[in-house]
User: What shape does this take?
Amino acid sequence: MAKSLQILTANRLRDGEVLYWRQGEWVGTLGDAEVLAGDAAAAALMGADAAVRARLVVNPYLFDVRLDSGHIHPIKEREIIRATGPTVRRDLGKQADHVQV
Amino acid sequence: MYRYDEFDARFVAERVAQFRYQVERRLSGELTEDEFKPLRLMNGLYLQLHAYMLRVAVPYGTLSARQMRMLAHIARKYDKGYGHFTTRQNIQFNWPKLVDVPDILADLARVEMHAIQTSGNCIRNVTADHFAGAVVDEVEDPRILAEIVRQWSTLHPEFSYLPRKFKIAVSGAAEDRAALQFHDVAIQILRSATGEIGYRVYAGGGMGRTPYIAHVVGDFVAKADILAFLEAVMRVYNQSGRRDNMYKSRIKILVNALGPDEMRRQIAREFDEIRRAGTLAVDAREIGRIAAYFAPPDFEHLDSNSPNYESARRHDTDFRAWSDINLAPHRSPGYAIATISLKPIGGVAGDASDVQLDGLADVIDEFGLHEIRVSHEQNLVLPHVRKQDLPAIFTRLVALGLATPNAGLVTDIIACPGLDYCDLANARSIPIAQRISERFADLDRQRDIGELKIKISGCINACGHHHAGHIGILGVDKKGVEYYQLMLGGSGAEDASIAEILGPAFDEHEIINAVEQVVEVYLDRREAGERFLDTVRRLGPEPFKERVYASH
Assistant: This one.
């Protein structure tokens, strides 16, 4: 069985912005996130605890993804919407910064 | 409108200062998130999918032009240019930054608004009939009692840590527009055969995981006794409501576990004790003082027919359609109640932009309308409009994109924010409402179908009132895919009933077809003058099931 792949996410304390873990840093887009497997996910979650204590983020958790030609696809609709923005307002949320012409 | 007294103003100002300090302490690390979370929730601040969300209380759904302008200002300055009106007559902002929230609360306080008791296990914002003070069949304006209840329940030390949240609604009319029987406690104002005004008190209604219709626990409570009676209900709940299981902690579970007779007996026992103490007797002068805030405007003596209005109806088919559908009779001749639909075809139910909020504030001022109301159906209401002003107001509404003629029709859909915004949701609600709205966009078809209330929730918590929908839709998650259960036969009106699930759930495309098929069965089988809900009640679910699942 393939190892489950996960992403670590949290919200920024100051403004609630959705963030993703990448090698000890927090990034704003899912595409830049670090894909974690096994022990790496557990280690990242411990790292996130430090970020919580440092008041950078709140509510860190892991979610499942799959990789398709190198692209990250969350398994749950919830994380797809969190990574982009409301499906009913394409002008808002993270998707607004990546307007496709 | 109710105006803050010195106590209200000081208390709200203190809360703003207190929360500002709490945010500072959170950012400096003095408070952990576990410590801070209950404090922010006490001030209406949630953390949702994309960002924080601030829920602002709109007591009994009444807003002034000044308050509308402040909401527009907040939407523009601190949010992304819009707010969302909810099924509890409140407004939510979806994108505030934590660091800005103290300033937002300070701005709200300037117009006598706040976000207190819009979250947490306390008595929440008291809701009321959105046609209060304007409608023909009303015994008394329910907002007077709603305000008395608000004052009694705000920061009541005994009721700050209830087993679970507690929602109270009040109506003074025979026609129930406030979904009374789906509330934890509801009060219907009645007039006895001898002309005396008193209160019928319901308890134990609710939606969510376990829907129940409320039971009558007080047949005719005297005016002076109402707070003593409500306190008795709260005491029984506070003492015996379950705290071990959050799914069984609402008063509806207690009422149905004890049985209504035992609940009445226990309430009566507490009521006797509280009444004997006398401290909660509501003073008639105090009622009078508060009633003065809700005194109706001085209605002009107008002819019930306005030539200006009739002429516009003859010459403008859009105005005629809108006035046929969105107006309700007013108690004073020459006036009307106008519903401003926040359900444009294919739009997001309940959303209003800063430009629309400002524009409506201008309309309120220019036409001397005093106030606007938020309905639990996520629309706005102008309660006292001169019919002669309606053509001009309609023109303004058209320009603001607020003139959709669909009040009470199939496209006037309630939808919770769902998975597009909400952290609790399992499925999206808004896109389902949008697709149904587009499918039924044709106005002639909508008018042929007549009154039909579709209500959609994205999870079992039922913020979209799906249990009370003539057609209810509940979003569920099946292995990461959104599915939708279809229910029929609910009603939140005086003939309250709980909708029943028709059968297996549909995917997001199938559900739109299923709704259309249900409507087609109604059109095929209805009798003359029969509403959708009545046809469902007469026929039962079978004919609908047969059609909907025939090809499934």
In short: The interface with chain A takes residues 26-29, 33, 47-52, 80, 95-99, 348, 419-421, 425, 427-428, 430-431, 434, 477, 480-482 of chain B (CB under 8 Å). The domain at 6-110 of chain B is CATH 3.90.480.20 (Sulfite Reductase Hemoprotein; domain 2).
